[in-house]
Design a protein that fits this description.
alpha/beta, 8-stranded mixed β-sheet, 6-stranded mixed β-sheet, 9 helices, 14 strands, 23% strand
């Protein structure tokens, strides 16, 4: 499985998003993709999960994969050691600044529905009145009093608006409060406010340094605009066929969809070089 340049595998680090990328719509990872990742790691690469999900929403997937390495969670806010079940780094959102940002957005377009992800290895996702949660296995805690969203340290705030779709809401929020917080669209119905300067790229660079890898050693897979900074950092960015147009526009390559083993397609080709 040697490549043309004599290395066991062309990249030392394989960074994969989860939703819409590594995971199929039923939240499973196909056997073909598992096998391709196992072959790549056997050939010398390290696999690192880089997800917008905070640790509590990621841990069960890592356990299912038998994953014991580092994972970047919470849009880069958390570097988690799966094998040791501990956070190595954690960045929180300034709640006063977030409150100011929300006030400014609401002054522009009216009331928002809110949810918030609490910091920590067991931090809950709190869902306020009117916030539409996608059906699925991920646990949330519904709260009637919005003040409860702010009662403990947070790594992100989720926003929704009944009159704007995800792209429009993210763009408006970015224009209004982009100097206070970072705004990302991370999936259907998922627009997030994050600490300014935080991205998947910042978390990935921290984790890569711990693994002795650099940007030029990295191939990254993703599907949403929140993956754009990761693609900007990595040597090679691969967008899934189901990816958002904004990510496809900056990708070096487009592969098959998450349902059609897009990650495996690329890894298998690289293993044959």
């Amino acid at each position: 499985m040697s490549s043309a340049v004599g290395r066991p595998f062309p990249y030392k680090l394989i960074a994969t998003d989860l939703d819409g990328t590594l995971l199929r719509s039923d939240e499973s990872v196909s056997q073909r993709t598992r096998d391709a990742l196992a072959a790549a790691t056997a050939a010398g690469a390290a696999h690192i999960v880089v997800t917008g999900r905070a640790v509590p929403w990621t841990r069960h997937i890592l356990e299912d994969l038998g994953y014991e390495g580092l994972a970047v969670c919470g849009q880069g806010a958390q570097v988690y050691h799966a094998g040791e079940h501990r956070l190595l780094t954690s960045v929180t959102l300034d709640r006063q600044l977030a409150g100011l940002a929300l006030s400014k957005i609401e002054a522009e377009i009216g009331p928002l529905a809110l949810a918030a992800s609490r910091d920590g290895i067991d931090g809950e996702v709190l869902v306020g009145p009117g916030y539409q949660v996608q059906e699925g296995p991920l646990p949330v805690l519904h709260v009637e009093d919005p003040a409860e969203l702010w009662s403990a340290p947070l790594n992100k705030v989720y926003v929704q608006h009944p009159g704007y779709d995800d792209d429009a809401l993210a763009e408006i929020a970015r224009q209004v409060v982009g100097s206070l917080v970072d705004v990302v669209m991370a999936g259907a119905g998922v627009v997030e406010l994050l600490p300014l300067g935080l991205s998947k790229a910042t978390g990935l660079s921290l984790a890569a340094r711990r693994l002795g890898c650099k940007a030029r050693d990295t191939i990254a897979f993703g599907d949403m605009p929140n993956d754009i900074p990761m693609f900007g950092w990595a040597e090679h960015g691969v967008a899934m066929a189901n990816a958002h147009d904004e990510l496809k526009a900056v990708a070096h390559e487009i592969t098959a969809s998450n349902e059609d083993d897009g990650i495996a397609v690329v890894l298998e080709q690289l293993l044959q070089q």
